[in-house]
Amino acid sequence: MLHRTLGERITDVINTILLLLIAIAMFFPFVYIFSVSFSSIDDYLQSNFVLWPKHWVLDAYKYTLQNDRFIHSIFITIYITVIGTLCNLAFTSTMAYGLSKNFYGQKIFMLMVLFSFLFGAGIIPTYLIVKATGLINSIWALIMPVLISPWNLIVFRQFFKSIPEELNESAYMDGANEFKIFSRIILPLSKPAMATFGLFYAVMLWNNYFTGILYLNDPTKWPIQVLLRQIVVVNDMTAISATANQMLTNPPPAETIQMVSILLATVPILIIYPFLQKHFAKGVMLGSVKG
């Protein structure tokens, strides 16, 4: 057992205290949002700073979940996240696998990828391209411009290069073509990487709101993050109270509705993480095995 000096023990105590303070600071907003969302009107009006509900009520949740526009936005976001993640993984993995092979002009394609990684087109050129392709006011405008992430592509390529070439050579000897090798050998070995980058893409698509503001003019096509921006940032409560005939007679305070909306928009993506956690650390490190 190594002998630890007094200075090292003091350093460990200071680091532990600092990490606990950081953890508390990061966890506090979730506690506040959770508490306000379940607080009654009287409790909230008496004290805007609520750390734990005195009287648990579900009025804000009923008000929010009975709204057709909110539920519709949730389903739109789920659709964008699921379909977009599948498309992201399909295009990123196939292009990365192709670039992991040696062929004529490979360096040119890699330079193009690196150039797109270092230099973005900008908002106006991207908007003009989206408009020219007819994707304005289409949910595909939130998927197609971010179909392949250059950084994810580069790391994915390094992961494919770390797979022993002997596997491909033995498959060639058995008469397999590139498609069979990729689908039956490479993809099963890529589950940790696919889970990791799938989580990255899913979080990006779920939290994306800026492109929705740029490309979607129809409020009925807004994903939940755009609707959440209208409720929280713009403080436009009409964005969630369109179906007034279904709402409560005395609606809860706008602040509690905002907290409920934030909580309901955050929880689904948090639920996914524990199922992918076992692959997460391994998948991140696999691309750095071989340069």
UniProtKB/TrEMBL annotation:
State the Pfam families in the record.
Answer: BPD_transp_1
Could you tell me the keywords of this UniProt record? Cell membrane, Membrane, Transmembrane, Transmembrane helix, Transport
Give the record's family classification: Belongs to the binding-protein-dependent transport system permease family.
Membrane topology designation: Multi-pass membrane protein
Name of the molecule in the record: Carbohydrate ABC transporter permease
Q: Which Gene3D superfamilies match?
A: MetI-like
Q: Which InterPro entries match?
A: MetI-like (IPR000515), MetI-like_sf (IPR035906)
* Top-rank lineage group of the source organism: Bacteria
Kindly list the residue ranges recorded as spanning the membrane.
Answer: 12-34, 70-96, 108-129, 135-156, 193-216, 257-276
